[in-house]
Amino acid sequence: MNKYFFPISTFFFLIFQNIANTQTDTIHVSLPQVIQMAQSDAPDVQLAKTKQTTNYWQYQSFRANYKPLMDLTSTLPNFNRTIDAITQPDGTVEFIPRTLMENEIGISISQDVSWTGGSIFAFSGFRRVDNFATSINPKTISYLSTPIVIGFNQPLFQFNNLKWDKKIEPLRYEEANREFAEEMEEIAFNATRLFFDVLIAQLNVAAVAKNKADADTLFVISKGRFDVGRIAETELLQIELSAMNADADLAEAVLDQQSNTERLRNFLGITKSIRFDLIPPTEIPEIFINPDTALRYAQEYRSETIEFMRRIKEAERDVVKAKADNGLNVDLFGQFGLTQTSNMLSDAYKDPLDQERFRLGLTLPIADWGKTKAQIEIAKSNFQLEQMNVEQERINFDREVLLKVQQFDLQRNQVLLGLRAFEVAQKRLAITRQRYLIGKIEIVELNIAIREEDEARRSYMNSLRNYWIAYYEMRRLTMYDFENDKPLIRNIQK
Length: 494
Prior knowledge:
The protein is an alpha+beta fold. It folds into 2 domains: about 1-60 and about 165-310 and about 385-485, Outer membrane efflux proteins (OEP); about 70-115 and about 120-155 and about 330-365. It has helices at about 5-20, 30-40, 45-65, 160-225, 235-270, 290-300, 305-325, 370-435, 445-480; strands spanning about 25-30, 70-85, 95-115, 120-130, 140-155, 275-280, 330-340, 355-365, 480, 485. A 6-stranded antiparallel beta sheet has the order 2-3-4-5-7-8, with no helix packed on it. Helix 1 packs parallel to helix 5. It starts with a helix and ends in a 7-residue tail after the last strand.
């Protein structure tokens, strides 16, 4: 029973596999098509787009800080019936019942001034107060008009947050844009890796199935030779073992193919069950990359370039903030306006009176026991540390790009060598198999040829896989399409 376990189990396994395939849609796709699918609807793309949308609106919120803000305020109405403690003309306090209603409306506009760190504002409003009649007071109505009030608030010697945000936030937004483009190239890189996982698994299934068929044929022929005494029993047992191993290898290869197919399907965001019929990208483009050119593109288009600038600016800002927050602070406030009050609405705007306000506030630290100096020195040390970190990261960045360029140049030669080795191994196996069938060689030599052909096939596919992975990694590292000679920066606002 053990003698036929592997052939029978594999037979039924393949039957069920074929039934499943007939119930599954098959799509014929190439590597560029899989990448296009991944960059269009994959879950990773939706996450990247959502993140970028958040970055976009954060940037719009930052820009709004430098535009005028207009507000409309109103209280319609504010009714109040209570007993209040009212100070009398002689200085005594009496509890007096009151019933009043206030209605007011106003409109204001303000504008921050980034180059000074201050703000200017204007206001116009109107207020009406109704004092309802009581047992001791008649009903009265009062109007207060404020046709116009203009003013400013200007801090001196203080940290100007608006000024530094204007330097840093555009860098942060541009960095986010480039990170989005890099994430899209990362998706292309991962799609390439998963594409070849499925492709190699499919080719392994095809190769193992062919080996199984050849092993079964050899086993039948060898049984006939054994029956007539042309081969020894040990050789027949070895051939039978090879056939059984081929059954097990086929079952394992099919399971591996199913697992890799499922991973690619999930990555692409495909919910229904499908089967991929992948087209091997055997035609590799004639691309030769100059290391200096690749490094220049990487420095120009990668997000790290903007990140380095932003980090230095932020560290510099922290030093300025530490000095400003711990020194002399002066605050100027000024206001000029027109106002008038009357019991008649028509008179509330006649001959308005001017009103002025001016305030000068000053804060000067006298003794803080070295706290100010310590905070400033900490900020300076962090600035120097960030400079050193950025410089080291720049060096590592350049080294990585140059190393990947060198490795990419080697990958093309590996593909050509792997293809030639595979072709030679295929021819050798065909000749060796024919020689075995006519009894010229032993089974050991045939097994060696089969193993070498399988190794050559795997080596060739791995070199092809490594080439395309290196190709899309070069795109991601440099953010440049060398085949079409254009940068890969995307216009996010569109």
